[in-house]
Amino acid sequence: MMQVEIWSDVMCPFCYIGKRKFEAALEQFPQRDKVKVEWKSFQLMPGLKTDANVKLDQFLAKEKGVSIEQARSMNHHVSQIAKDIGLDYRLDQAIPANTINAHRFAHYAKGNGKQDEAEEQLFRAYFVEGKNLDNIPTLVKLGEAIGLDGDKVKLALENNHYADDVQTDLYEAQLAGVRGVPYFVFNKKLAISGAKEPETFLETLEKTFAEWRENNMEGPMDIIEGQSCTPEGECD
What we know:
- This is DsbA family oxidoreductase.
- Residues 3-205 form the DSBA-like thioredoxin domain.
- By secondary structure, this protein is α+β, with helices and mostly antiparallel strands.
- It has one domain (2-163, 172-215): Glutaredoxin (3-Layer(aba) Sandwich).
- It has helices at residues 13-28, 56-64, 68-83, 100-111, 115-127, 136-145, 150-158, 163-176, 198-215; strands at residues 2-8, 35-41, 183-186, 190-193.
- Strands 2-1-3-4 form a four-stranded mixed sheet.
- The model has no long low-confidence stretch (mean pLDDT 94).
């Protein structure tokens, strides 16, 4: 299958928007059953210390040195972009959180064939439901919502499992030259940086898939004949 790798961070508003736009393109792509999507971890603020009492408006005002009103205006602008593609952002409720646990949870879900479902749950939990994604009980509930064993999710997160997988993704992002997210890599040949329109994603899918199919076309093998025996007992 042709691979599409997506580097993202679950607290990035354009990553959720980009997910929706890519999905819209994939839905129109006739060979979508031959495309494998793999989510990759990226951290916009790896040193962030989570404070569940601080909301996004306050956080942005402090980080960017602007007023609360200006921060709210910024969030409103992004929310309107999200609304245009059917996402109901409630950024006044969002809790800025260190996303390392969320990324480890996504890797656990990946190992159980539920990575895309996990990413959707994480985005919705952050941007719509105002949940703290650095909180293990919260992540356990998200896991249960997509059919994962809550006790196993809890055990994995409490024992820091999948931390190495996250670091591998971050290292690969450096090698790939990822400077911002979302970042889409198609067949390791072509990349799209940012939440482009579905038309751009569709054109890229068509282009890279045509190349992938040409290089992976299955056809009759050329056979060099030699002395051999058949099940019928004929040897020559």
